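Bench notes, afternoon.
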Amino acid sequence: MKLVFCLFLLFLVLKIDTFVVILKKYFMQLFYNPKPIDNTISEIKRKFRKLMNGEISSTMQSMGSVYRVNYGIEYLRLKNLASQYPQNSDLSERLWNLTIRETMIMATLLQPVDEFSKEQANRWLEKVNQPELVEYYCMNLLSKLDFAPELVLEWINSDNVWKKITGFILSARIYQQFTDLECQKIIDKGYQYSLTDNLHLYKSIALSLSRICRVNKEVATKINKIVEEFETSDVVSKQYIAHQVSTEMSFLSF
């Protein structure tokens, strides 16, 4: 009875959608029969084998996406599979460390956001070496962290290229959370790294600058002015960044 009363009070305080999420998590934990993590991982792997798609895996490999193991399972199927398990830090940590494409993606879905630290974020990033994984890591987990802006500013200043790439991709997802000064720091780093032959790096910079253009007219004008000189450059990376920013500006109604 006391539990029902507490849930009712929570319903009055929180938005309905937030209440539904909390209620769903409660009942999953209430009725879910916990198994040893080893058993759960073995079960997940068995499901992977039933869902595996060799054609997709081969295509990804031919396009440069090389994982230690890749079952070629579509993201929506992985997301549906992850929904069958309650979020669990220990399970997600084990899945991530298996360095299998599918287990790493599921780890980003099963890691409780409020139990993920900056130290873990940095430790997990050490195993990232594919742009697809950067996208899911940012979308499912990093962008939901309270300290995400801090990670961006730390990572774009790193000497590690995958930290730079992840920092810029993450900044594109949370561009509304930055102060004007932080926006300027990201813009400056984007300009500094614009001369590069790393495809993933200059694409991440282009995405970041394009999204930050949406902050306000002043910031957009500043970015556009900076990349104007790139339009006449014979450097591929600068041409790409200029084109992406120009395309973004054409859609904005400033």
